[in-house]
Amino acid sequence: MEIEQFYNPQQQQLISCRQSQQNDLRRCVQDVSQLDNSVPNLIEWLEANYQNLRQICSLDQTTQSKQETEEQIMIRIIKDQLSRASQQQSMNLNFCQLDVQPALMERLIFSINQLSHLKEIKINLSRQKWGHEQLQVLCNQLIMCRTLRNLELNLGFNSIGDKGHQILTETLSNLHMLESININLERCGLQRRSISILEIFNYLKSINDFQLNLDGNLIEIEDEMKAIIPKFKSENIFTNLQIFKIRFNEYQPKYSNEIQNTQQINGNNSNQQNLYNQQSANANFVAQSQQNQINQSVHPNHSQLDFNQQQNQSSNIQQQQQMQALQQNIALQQQQLQQLCTYAQQMVQRGFPQNHPQYLQIAAQIQQLQASIKQNMHLSKQLQTKATAIKKKSVISRLLEIMLKFTYNLEEFSLACPGQLIDSACWEYFAELIKAKAEKLKKFDFAGLNSNTKSQDMEYFFYQMAKLKNLTDLSLSFHNLQTQSCLHLERFLKPLTKLEHIHIDLSSPDSSSNQRDLFQDLSNFINNTESQNIKSLDLNISNSSFDLDLALPLFQGIAKLRNLASLKLNMQSCKQACDKTIQLLCQALLYQKNIKSLQIDAAYSSFTPISIQYIMQTLVVLKDSLISLQLNLTNRGEGFTNFNNNLINDTVGHLQNLKKCVISSARNPKISLYRQKAQEVNRMIKLCHLMKATNPLQNFRKEVSFEVLQYLSQ
């Protein structure tokens, strides 16, 4: 199939291909939505359309026969985007996962200073293998944009480190017109002053939207965090702040919990008494450390509201003293072990047999000493982890303190952090924050409840949440929540009559009784809510004890939400979810005449092929309203490889209004063999998307193929 028309960036328009070619391309792309069920068909599609996609990506304004390199394509697209930016005062480029050559990226960066009048810049530079040197070059150009108001910068999965963070902070502090900041620094190798970027508020008084993603960085805050609040000397620096979102879920570094075993038995008889004395002292030290840990685990008084800074400081001192003593203890033991090794080696050289009583005694001492060192190493790891947790608790505490004391117009608040770092004092501050912002707070998102939290701590928090009369968006994570009693969420959520969007995470690695209580709470709330404003519902109940007893009231409640426009239900790996569960869900969906987006993940549950028929029959009823559809019906059972493929194809064919469709109903182990071919075409598709950001390719629905190919090439 030939492409006769071409894209002319100078005229800012894209001339459509011939109608027959459009239909062929559209048919091919639409077919991709079902190709996950039939891998050979996917390969045929890739091979048949590979050249077509290359041509679409290399359309030239002078001749269609000229084949441009990918770098030339990008250069032309960038030039066109810069030309548009000079007129529209906005620039948006997405280079995520594209292997952009340094020379080309340098050209892009140095082009920014030609657009010093820009008011909005959005650049996605994720996974570009950048260091702080490349970021410094970019920031040198960004600082020229003195009129910049909105900045969205995705630097995720680069290696800019603390130096790059400092460069970015200094750059932002000099862009005094900024009103909106959205920075993604996920897995960027940050370690120390990650939260200190908040100091930019001292220089940027007009910020109303601040979003920061620090997930996956090893943040170790010591004295730096304590210095931030005193630097906020002006009470009105957060006056304009309306949106505040921050994430810093972290991965723990890998500690070595054991020492390498000595290859040969060695020892030193002269240190036998010292060894016994050291073991006795070590046993006392372990017992005292365990008692200290028990004492430190006691929660502060619930009525106190000072974050117990003195207690935290005392705990820090105790932790440091214990760590220092333990390290000295380990060093002494290792020295004694080396002496024993040397002595045992001398005994062997002198001809002592290994069954000699004195040699056996030395060997026993070495084994005991090795066990003691291993125990101390394990305790050292525990103390170090606890000391890190205490530091991070102070980070959360001070962050909430900032929001409580210095914000006046806060409308959106989002925090995602390790739940085990939230103690009683933090819950107290959370409650006070909600209480103080009750009139204006419209969106609240907190993912940090997956912890061993006392129910009385959370009750006061939810008691205050019930006062958020103007709340429209609520997102809470109860993943692996270990409470001692039911929270009675119904009575706290029922007063929130203006809720439009709800996201609840009830996923759990086990079937604990309190998790079932939360299910019942949620079902009661949905069934009894007087509000018909709920437009979207997002429930994650994966890997939980979701059975028919829980499904019936929940789906009955969903059926009552007649204005629901979006439903996202993740019940992956729910072993008790069966065909009857799917049938109840489909019955609830029949009442959703206005639903536009449907996303269901029922993979690896206990349903049979009949459930696919239930779902397909339901989709036909929803064909007039449905725009976006994502289904994951993958199952380990046999009979699903190509089951009902024709039924799925026919059903999707009736959904004329679909703009996005991804269906997975098979798990083919051979799919990895085709990923290499899929990656090359996926690269072409991404270039198409980059061009589409400049000027949409009419009547060419790449969304479908992009989603599927992106999934295959992961």
TrEMBL record:
Superkingdom per UniProt: Eukaryota
Protein name (record): Kinase domain protein
Annotated source species: Tetrahymena thermophila (strain SB210)
